[in-house]
Amino acid sequence: MHDGTLQRLFPAAKFDEPLRRYTAWKIGGPADALLQPGSVDELLSAVELARKHGIPVTVLGGGTNVLVRDGGIRGLTLHLAKSLKGTELSGETLVAEAGALYPVLANMTASRGLAGLEFATGIPGTVGGAVFMNAGAYGSETVQVLQWAEVLRDDGEVVRMGPEELGLSYRRSILHERPGWVVLRAAYRLHPGDPEELRERIREFRALRMNGSPKRPSCGSTFKRPPGDFPGRVIEAAGLKGLRVGQIEVSTVHANYFVNLGGGTASDALRLMELVRERVRERLGIELEPEVRVVGEP
Predict the structure, then answer these.
(1) By three-state DSSP, how is residue 295 classified?
(2) Could you say which of 140, 173, 221, 251 is catalytic?
(3) What is the C-alpha to C-alpha distance for residues 196 and 276, in angstroms, rounded to an integer?
(4) Residue 273 class from Cβ within 10 Å (0-12 exposed, 13-18 middle, 19+ buried)?
(5) H-helix or E-strand containing 106?
(6) Does pTM surpass 0.85?
(7) Is 171 a catalytic residue?
(8) How far is CA 184 from CA 129, 197, 227, 298, in A?
(9) Containing H/E element for 57?
(10) Among 69, 171, 201, 225, which one carries the catalytic annotation?
(11) Closest by alpha carbon to 276, among 247, 249, 246?
(12) Has 221 been annotated as catalytic?
């Protein structure tokens, strides 16, 4: 939408902004308008204004587990990771805004002797993204500590939803079927723990992640776990480590990470994902399901 409407409605936004600057994969065409709301109220106002004028809204959190297509994103893109990061701790309950980073929450709660979010140190995403996909690591998931999430529905109502209402399951929530809904904040129910023991657990998790992750840009885990197995092991067993399309490669460090060697495109990534799925299906009879969320225009 380049008729001046976006500039008039959202003067604080950045226009024709390359989204590769905001994604962990360093891939993505331009956003028509990219807005970083400074508060939940500003986010609500922006969404209301966009909907009033029929402008599509896309939410981008930390840019992990997402692939932005090469054509970019039409309408208004809300980038939350560097803006909506407020937190409030009351007793054993933590309330965090949608843009707060999970590793930051892990460190903050551990230092205050509150246990439950140590696993979050291995998830380089935001609260909103974690609720959206029930993010988890090291045997724990968001659903185990989530008390409620505050969600803006597409009818303009803001509602609090518990884990059951959100339909949280393995890397999934009801939000996958409600693309117009936006997570605003979430509350986590924690429990007392020894700060040093919690910090040590976080250090162990961080070391595991660093030792098992490639150094080049990726989206994180590309595929979900197939029943009773792990996607990295399956892809490696199919002999696909090092397989490459354009500048996107199946990592030789961890086969479920597809790395950007420099200048990779979304079309490269999508072709490689489909090629890996086909070969795993042919060679092992296993169907891989993507974990990465694909947004934008071809």
Answers:
(1) strand
(2) 221
(3) 43
(4) buried
(5) helix 102-111
(6) yes
(7) yes
(8) 11, 31, 32, 29
(9) strand 57-60
(10) 171
(11) 249
(12) yes
Tokens of 173: 């929530």
53 Cβ contact list (under 8 Å, min separation 6): 5, 9
Distance of CA 113 to the CA centre of its chain: 27
Quick check: 231 and 225 in contact, CB under 8 A? yes
Q: Which two tokens stand for residue 259?
A: 């790395």
CA distance 49 to 54: 9
The catalytic position among 17, 141, 150, 291 is 291
Contact criterion met (CB below 8 Å) for 64 and 105: no
Determine the Cα–Cα distance for residues 257 and 241; give it in Å rounded to an integer: 10
* Token code pair at residue 4: 């001046």
- Give whole-number Cα distances, 72 to 176, 234, 245, in Å: 20, 32, 20
Tokens of 217: 């840009």
Residues 139-195 have pLDDT tens digits of 999 999 999 999 999 999 999 999 999 999 999 999 999 989 999 999 999 999 999
198-249: pLDDT as tens digits: 999 999 999 888 777 888 999 999 999 999 999 999 999 999 999 999 999 9
